[in-house]
Specification:
- By secondary structure, the protein is α+β, with helices and mostly antiparallel strands.
- About 55% of the residues lie in helices and about 15% in strands.
- The protein is built from seven helices and eight strands; from the N terminus they run αβααββααααβββββ.
- The strands form three sheets. The chain has a three-stranded antiparallel beta sheet with strand order 1-3-2. A three-stranded antiparallel beta sheet has the order 4-5-8, with no helix packed on it. The protein has a two-stranded antiparallel sheet with strand order 6-7.
- Strand 4 and strand 5 (about 155-165) form a beta hairpin.
- Helix 1 packs across helix 2 (about 20-30) and helix 5 packs antiparallel against helix 6 (about 115-130).
- The longest helix has 23 residues, at about 70-95.
Length: about 180
């Protein structure tokens, strides 16, 4: 195989575009460069003096070469790489189930003061999707909010915050503060 054919074949094997560093060993292995003192210089000279076959890759740094005949394939590949890169960005933005459950529990905590009935709906959703861990976290958070420890103000009174009524395990009464003399 002559030198130019060897370089073309090397570039074909490398996908139509490659660096000199990658082209050199393949071209030297396939072609007859026995009469050349500097085989790398011979390959560079062939690339530079065959503009109908080879060109510098315009969107790559120095040292990148490509086959003219592979322009359509290179363009398709570049477009595919761009699309796949965009797809990766979109996939990374997709919320996972754990993120969704965390957001759901946080929303229930935000609703706690004003819309307690919606908390029960969220609790049921967590149960149905099999996330008892998140349901337990929510229950523990609510229990901590409903049964605050006693506070001692003057030493003479104990103040306790609680919820008055409970129906079917769901708090539905008004909050209150009890002040009891010690």
């Amino acid at each position: 195989m002559n030198q130019k054919e060897a370089i073309e074949k090397a570039l074909q094997m490398l996908g139509g575009r490659a660096t000199l560093k990658d082209i050199y060993p393949l071209a030297m292995e396939m072609g007859d460069f026995s009469g050349s003192k500097d085989k790398k210089a011979t390959i560079r000279n062939c690339l530079q003096t065959s503009p109908k076959s080879f060109r510098h890759s315009p969107d790559k740094p120095s040292g990148w070469w490509e086959l003219i005949s592979f322009q359509a394939e290179i363009s398709k590949r570049d477009q595919l790489i761009k699309k796949l890169t965009e797809d990766v960005v979109q996939l990374k933005a997709v919320k996972t189930e754990d993120n969704f459950v965390k957001l759901l529990v946080q929303e229930a905590k935000n609703l706690y003061k004003h819309e307690e009935k919606k908390i029960e709906v969220i609790r049921q959703i967590l149960y149905k999707v099999g996330r008892s861990d998140a349901e337990e976290e929510l229950d523990a958070w609510i229990a901590g909010r409903e049964h605050r420890p006693s506070f001692n103000f003057s030493g003479d009174y104990v103040v306790t915050k609680h919820i008055d009524n409970e129906v079917n395990g769901v708090a539905c009464g008004a909050t209150g503060i009890n002040v009891n003399k010690k």
